[in-house]
Amino acid sequence: MKIQRIAAEATTEAAPDEVWALLSDRSTWPSWSPLGSHSSERPGEGGAPDGLGGIAQFVTGRHCVREEIVEREPPRRLSYTLLSGLPLRDYRAVVELTPAGTGTRIRWSASFLPGRPGTGWIYRLALTRIFRGMVTGLATAALARR
After folding, report:
1. Cα 116 from chain centre
2. pTM over 0.90
3. DSSP-assigned beta bridge partners for residue 78
4. What are 75-119's pLDDT values in tens digits?
5. Total structural domains in the chain?
6. N vs C: which end of the chain shows fewer Cβ within 10 Å?
């Protein structure tokens, strides 16, 4: 099976620290994204809910996904892997925040293998749409918090 890659980008006038404040707190994600409810399953390093190794669940419609934070470089980069909830393998998402003038460029990308042959394009399409909602929602919410 072929590795699938997706990405979405947006730019906001909010500074990287302002964007990071929302991105690094997964409990805020449902308020600015297409995701449904959030719950923390296991805290990460230092007992922080969204620290390295922290596991969270997101329930959207009939889907419940579990994700683990595998990389944190404040205020530049956050990476997580999918533990369960979608028929995908080796799923890893990376959110990169890059200064853009006085604002921030947000890039949300992922790679994965489909769980079944012939389904990669479906998940690529659906997840790209979700990622577009994530980056535009994050960009808008970070600016609104100023």
Report:
1. 23
2. yes
3. 72, 95
4. 999 999 999 999 999 999 999 999 999 999 999 999 999 999 999
5. 1
6. C
Model confidence pLDDT, tens digit, residues 23-79? 999 999 999 999 999 999 999 999 988 999 999 999 999 999 999 999 999 999 999
Question: Domain of 35: which CATH number?
Answer: 3.30.530.20
The C-alpha atoms of residue 30 and residue 63 are separated, in whole angstroms, by: 14
Total residues found in the chain within this entry? 146
CA pair distance 123, 142, nearest whole angstrom: 28
Distance of CA 68 to the CA centre of its chain: 11
The whole-angstrom separation of Cα 144 and Cα 146 is 6
Range of the domain at 59: 4-144
